[in-house]
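Supplementary Note 2. Why include the ligand at all?

Several targets in our set were suspected to adopt different conformations when bound, so apo predictions alone were not considered sufficient. For every target with a known small-molecule partner we therefore ran a joint prediction. The input for glutamic acid is given below.
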Amino acid sequence: MKANYKIYIFAAVIMEKKVRVRFAPSPTGGLHLGGVRTALFNYLFAKKHNGTFVLRIEDTDQTRFVDGAEEYIASCLEWCGLKPDESPSLGGPFGPYRQSERKATYRQYAEQLVASGHAYYAFDTSEELEAKRKEIPNFTYGLATRAVMRNSLTLDAAEVSALLASNTPHVVRIKIPENELVSFTDLIRGHVSFDTNLIDDKVLLKADGMPTYHLAVVADDRAMEISHVFRGEEWLPSAPIHVLLWRYLGWGDEMPVWVHLPLILKPDGNGKLSKRDGDRLGFPVYAQNWTDPKTGDLTKGFKELGFMPEAFVNLLAMLGWNDGTDQELFAMAELIDKFSVERISKAGAKFDFEKAKWYNHEWIKKSKAQELLPFVKEAFAAADTETGEDVQLAKVIDLIKDRCNLLGDFVAQGAYFFNAPGNYDLDAVKPKWTAEKAAFFEAYASELEDGQSAAVLEEKFKILAAAHNFKPGELMLPLRVMLVGGKFGPGVFDIAVSLGAAETIERIHKAIAAFN
Ligand code: GLU
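The joint prediction is reproduced in token form.
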């Protein structure tokens, strides 16, 4: 450590402060699964500690604002069961919860920082900035350059007053101190420190009077009495600026506890998972379908791809957290109960779509037919398949759910229950099909009646096969292809029971004609 550095250590005191956390997305487009995981960890922590989970929309960057993104974010949270306690639509005691509606509150803080010497007005026009960028290699506005720019540090006081009085466009920049180490404690990373000489003088207030993220996030975390900041690791480099602002605004004692969550990595572990990786590798990274309002481009989401919200939440929780055992399946209530920051890992978590589907498969298996019914009905409706009575569909769900990874798989795995097969896997049957087998099936069909159980149907099948000099094994595959069309599905006698005698008989007759 360099000897002439001033060292400030900010260890936020974990006091008896009421737990208030926030998820603070910017409404700029689809919601990445990393964003949902941030929301989830905030939510789990809040619920675990009887705290409050706030949704705050950070929309101060008007150039990146996208129509419909806020509603979309709210809908994704709702789908995942992450209900905020305070939000733009619900309101709450610390509102408004949209930063654009808090615009008037930020300027005073920028002025306070200028008055105390921790910030300054900068009048440089974009042309002037452009010229400096050309002149100075790797230009950043800060320690090394602020003395040659047009700002309230270089201009004399009278000139500054005149410029302000004539409403000359200007921004307010933080004056990052020289030779300091800004250190603080992060609950996951432990002691972290940043060299101020490597940080530029970020804009705090823009020419349009809107704050930038840095000023707004600190002002609002304080105004909303946020106790813990859970956010992605990509925000860690911003933390020293925030820590300085907390200090310079005189709020050092109220600073929240920092918790920077590990990144979600590409499947090969090489860098942060992006939407482009999903497009390239053929899996979703957004929670729900997102249509870009400008281009009309649709990006698929986990929901529409056939994930259960319980599975999506479960798999997100396991990206960077575990409960210390081998357990992988957790329902929300259990996650709330077991969640602890100590068990969040420092290392990035690789995203594996096959594993994601495994979670969904496990959740489908473990859910009751009644719970799956609304999802499955929707999937069949989308495929224009009439499924009749719910009781009947529920039975079908129980028969096939073990075979489904995605909710849409219920259609592929179960459509034949509702529509007789239009064509058959003849390759599976034809080569060994004989007149004797046809005679067997004619005889079997004539013995079928409603009310016979799968066990009874199987018993009859075996007895009749023996009488016709067949091993039952030789006849099972043809029966399956008759009822299903292909070589898949649950127990063939269970299928027959579900179809009922009349339908089973009809399918057998129709198939015999096709096989002959
Ligand atoms: N608005 C930031 C985002 O879009 C929030 C970062 C933070 O939580 O401080 O993620």
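The CA atoms of residues 275 and 285 lie 6 Å apart. The first strand starts at residue 6 and ends at 10. Comparable summaries for the other entries are listed in the accompanying table.
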